[in-house]
Amino acid sequence: MDCLARARDEFQRRRPPARSQFGAVLRDDQRPVVTFTVIGLCVLLFSLQLLGSAVTDANPDPVTGALWYAPLQTSSWAFEPWRMLTSALVHSPANAMHLLFNMFALWFIGRAIEPALGPLRYIALLTLSALGGSVAVLFLTPAWTPTLGASGAVFGLFGALFILMRATGSQTGGILALIAINVVVSFVVPGISWQGHFGGLVIGALCALVFSKAPARSSTDRRQDARRRARWQGFGLLGIAVVLVLLTGLGMTLVNPYA
Fold first, then answer.
1. DSSP symbol at 90
2. pTM listed for this prediction
3. Interatomic CA distance for residues 214 and 219, integer angstroms
4. What angle (nearest 5°) sits at the alpha carbon of residue 90, between those of residues 97 and 44?
5. CA 76, CA 180: separation in Å to the nearest integer?
6. Which of 170, 182, 188, 237 could bond to 165 as cystine, CB 3.0-4.6 Å?
7. What is the mean pLDDT of each run of 10 residues along the chain (259 residues)?
8. Euclidean distance between CA atoms 184 and 33, whole angstroms
């Protein structure tokens, strides 16, 4: 019996793991660790923002002022490109609903997308969507206008979810309605950066196209197919990242704080 048990365990170990349509390893415990981590980090930073405001009575508080993003901060006057990503982690300390809406959307959609993509693909999706939102802000927002919030990454999830649902043959009417409502809100409600939403939505959809269109099978070796698909997906995501970096370089030359 011990021999049979060892043989069964060895077979289970050698057998390629089951994967989703997009390449993620399927496990019994599919906790969206990345989603919960990002939510926790945003809540922590929001608490520090409130504390900073209470201690210094500054506008903005030191945490917000150090992490938000304005086009001027990627220009020849001030070169702080990391803000294009850090701005996605901070929210308006004067408006708790800003944080609550983004965290609810991240929790609601992230729990569906993260297990289907796996943590690394999901991190790439969130990062590139946030960067895409900031690139759109760079081109479409006045140089002195600060932006902050995870909305660009959240809209990236909206765009990605639509593409991934189409790839699996699911009904997309609900997500289209959700996107439409949020697009309208972006233009109707003052103080919302529709530019960041637009950039995140486009880049999220492009990332999802990379995930869904990468070649899935070329042989009978499932491990080899998984490596091949991951390689193609990596090339696609790298291509999107390179384009965003090049666009950032171009946008830097167009920033004019005196306009």
1. -
2. 0.89
3. 15
4. 85
5. 37
6. 170
7. 51 60 75 95 95 71 92 92 96 90 94 93 97 97 94 96 91 88 85 93 97 76 80 95 97 89
8. 31
